[in-house]
Amino acid sequence: MAGQEHGPGSDPDPSDVPAALRSALVRLAADVLGDTDPADVPPSLLAVRRFAPRRRATAGGAPLWSALQEDAAFRARVARVWLQAHDPAPAATPDREPSSTEGAAGVTQVETTSPGPATGTDAAVGAWLQNLPWQHLVPTSAPAVVETADTQRLAGLEREVERLRAALGVAREDERAARDELTALQRELRRLRSDADRARSEARALAAAAELDARRAAADLQAAADERAQAAADLRAAAAERSSAREELRTGHRLAESRVRLLLDTVVDAATGLRAELALPPVRDLPADLVAPGVDGPHVRPTSRGRSVGDPALLDDLLRLPRAHLLVDGYNVSKTGWPHTTLADQRRLLVDGMAALAAQTGAEVTCCFDGQAGHRAAPPVRGVRVLFTAGETADDLLRQLVAAEPPGRVLVVATSDREVVEDVERAGAWAVPAATLVERLRRH
Q1: What is the pLDDT of residues 309-368, one digit of tens each?
Q2: Region Disordered: which residues (predicted)?
Q3: 273 within 8 A of 303, measured Cβ to Cβ
Q4: Which one of 102, 153, 273, 343 is most buried, by most CB atoms within 10 A?
């Protein structure tokens, strides 16, 4: 842009600007440049800004003067600084900025009041910066006065005042910018707080929904686990029942087969033994040959029938029959034979004697003793089966063993219990007193 004429908006020749006014403008621009943020410094003044503060106005006078004329933004900033320095009560607030309009030559003209108490060259500086008439404010030329030391000191003080006013204007301009930034930051802070409150509210709602979903999922998971456990328990129970049923069925089949086979072997062996006992001769006569009168029948050999159950010889005859089974009421017999010894010694003496008897006769021998819950059956002792009851008496076990045998097998029960004797005889077994078995054991 060019220098100012006598009215606003005119463009006279810049050579019309007096040297004093131009020097004051350059000094003010140098002071403003030193306090300007590097990002806002015009490119042509970057090198000038690096000068020492006292050298900027002298060494960088030409670039500063050119920037004041050509750079509207820099000129407007210098004008604002001048106004801040000469206005004791700035009108700018944190929420409102001073309005500005563009001059005809492209320079920003700041809307303001009168330049305050400035006069003379200082007032002309403010008017020139604001595109206002300034020629009438320039002091008229006066007769040259010889400068004294006081005059020089006064001139230096005036320049210092101008510098301080420029610094004050810069400070006020920075304060205004800081207030504007503070206002913007406060608005941003309020917006961020509102967003944070809304986010926290949404987060609480989401957390409550997630907690509700988690509780529902946990309840569903627990219900599924309970159902699975119940199904597993039912499956195990069904498997156990199936296994038990299969085991009972197999046991029943084995028992039936054992009874049938044992009965068959008993019949075969009984027939063979009967032939040997009766000493039957080979068949020599046929029925047709015996029709003739005067022929006597076959001779019948006497057997064990009619003998007393207290006869040990009868016990021997019974045990020598094929597949004979001797069932012994353990403590009933042991207390009869060895009443003054301990139960352990009684069991040992009885089982040893029964082992010798089994070896002599070849009969199957089972000794039943009263036991306690959890007492397991002892392993066979030299051919003698030893059983201990669990939750029942030896008498009940004897009845069960007799009932389990097939009909027709020779069963001999050694006991002095009258009820047991009646029950086993009713089931088809022989019953001999305990004393008979003890006497038979003592004979050998």
Answers
A1: 677 888 888 888 888 899 999 999 999 999 999 999 999 999 999 999 999 888 999 999
A2: 1-20, 88-123
A3: no
A4: 273
Whether residue 200 contacts residue 113, with contact meaning beta carbons closer than 8 Å, is answered with no
* 71/46 Cα distance (integer angstroms): 14
CA–CA separation, 263 and 404 (whole Å): 12
Secondary element (H or E) of residue 63: helix 61-70
Q: Which of 35, 343, 301 is nearest to 174 (CA)?
A: 35
**Spatial separation of the C-alpha atoms in residues 337 and 343, rounded to whole Å:** 12
Dihedral angle over CA of 111, 112, 118, 120, nearest 10: 30
- What is the rounded average pLDDT of the residues 27-46? 83
* Cα-only R_g, the chain: 69
Instruction: Kindly list the strands in the beta sheet with 364-369, ordered across the sheet, starting from the edge strand earlier in the chain.
Output: 378-381, 384-388, 364-369, 325-329, 411-414, 430-432
| Distance from C-alpha of 27 to C-alpha of 162, rounded to nearest angstrom | 9
Residue 106: its H or E element: none
Distances from the Cα of 356 to the Cα of 43, 262, 352, 382, angstroms:
131, 24, 7, 9
**pLDDT tens sequence across 294-309:** 434 333 333 344 456 6
Cβ–Cβ under 8 Å, residues 110 and 80: yes
Give the C-alpha separation, 352 to 333, whole Å.
Answer: 13
